[in-house]
C-alpha cells in the first residue's frame, strides 16, 4: 500500500486565517480527520487534525487557550 492509496483526492485544504469553526465544518463535510493548512501559494505550512482542534475550547473568561503542551514550572 502507498500513501496515495489512502489520501483524499483532490486535496482539501484551508488557509491559515480559517476559523476553527470553518476547519471543523471542512473535516465533517469531507469525512476527513485532518486538513493541510496552505499559504496563498498552496505551500504546506501545517496540518490541523480533529484531535488538535478539539483541544481549542474558548475560555469563558475570554482568555485565549495556550498553544502546545504546558511546561513544568510555569
CATH superfamily: CBS-domain
- Which oligomerization state do the chains in this entry correspond to? single chain
Please identify the top-level CATH class.
Alpha Beta
Distance between the ends: 44 Å
What is the CATH-assigned architecture?
Roll
Give the total of beta strands: 2
How are strands sequenced across the largest beta sheet? 1-2
The main β sheet shows up as: 2 strands, antiparallel
Structural class: alpha+beta
Shape: globular
The number of distinct structural domains comes to: 1
The residue fraction in helices comes out at: 10-25%
CATH fold category name? CBS-domain
Write down the secondary-structure element order.
HEEH
Number of contiguous helices: 2
Commentary on this structure:
With 74 residues, the protein is an alpha+beta fold. The chain is globular. It is built from two helices and two strands; from the N terminus they run αββα. The model has no long low-confidence stretch (mean pLDDT 80). Strands 1-2 form a two-stranded antiparallel sheet.
Keywords:
74 residues; alpha+beta; CBS-domain; two-stranded antiparallel sheet; 2 helices; 15% strand
Structure, briefly:
22% of the residues lie in helices and 15% in strands.
Question: How is the topology of this model organized?
Answer:
Layout: H1 20-30, E1 34-38, E2 44-49, H2 50-54
Antiparallel strand pairs: 1-2
Amino acid at each position: 500500500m502507498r500513501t496515495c492509496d489512502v489520501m483524499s483526492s483532490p486535496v482539501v485544504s484551508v488557509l491559515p486565517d480559517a476559523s476553527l469553526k470553518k476547519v471543523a465544518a471542512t473535516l465533517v463535510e469531507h469525512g476527513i480527520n485532518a486538513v493541510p493548512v496552505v499559504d496563498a501559494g498552496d505551500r504546506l505550512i501545517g496540518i490541523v487534525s480533529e484531535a488538535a482542534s478539539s483541544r481549542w475550547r474558548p475560555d469563558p473568561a475570554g482568555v485565549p487557550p495556550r498553544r502546545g503542551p504546558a511546561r513544568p514550572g510555569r
